[in-house]
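Predict the 3D structure for this chain.
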Amino acid sequence: MKIKDTALTIDTVSINEEDTIHDLIGLLVEKRLAPPQMMHDLTVKGYEKLKKEHLRLSRLFWSTDKAYLSNAHISITLTRKKEVPSLANQMLLDYSKIVGAVKRYDEALESFAVRPGTVFFVQEEADQYLLRRELQAIEVFRFDTQYEAAFREEDREPFLTIELKSRDELTKEELKWVRTIMFPSRRRRNPLIHMNHPPISQQHIDMITSLIHHMADIIGEFEGTTTHLESTDTHLPTYVQLGTAASIGYIEKSQLEGIR
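Done. Predicted structure below.
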């Protein structure tokens, strides 16, 4: 982490990514790198609408390896320490809920056709995502920074991909890993998670589980209303949750482009 103040000095400190922004501010004050009065009204790039004090630092790295905080007095750059991604790194995480979510999603697809390439808009409070349904994967894009990419036919580079394979499609290494979380399915229900910026945390797993359930919710809501579900040049199927209230329907692309 680098901190630059108005005197153009740069200091570097380390902090655990599971600490909060409140912990970060406390550390900077404790090390006398910044007085308390300079730490008010910090803006977190990409998270301007969220309450920031208890936001975990790991949340800032879901789609990037750098995060930026600033106000009129100070600029802070957070950099995640790089780690080599591997399936072994994922073995200590609890995948039980994501396995259930994938099963529910596959059952929803059995009941109602969703055209490959369909893009969903999902919002949970201030968190907004675009999810793209492909034959063997769900691709996840950040709404604020990857909007155009979600609609490309190629070179999309989602920050997160949930690859869904049948038992016969798994490599030996993948099959060995899948057996640690579930009995391998003959259907495309075996989830393999790929992130542009590993490592994967339990917080990521919980977020992915929630997003897959929302996709299944949308599919179930539209079942029986038409022959199949798809996004078009003018609208996207959507799930929006604000507080305890949730709504499912279509949203105009022009409306989404207006709030970006």
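Residues 87-259 form one domain.
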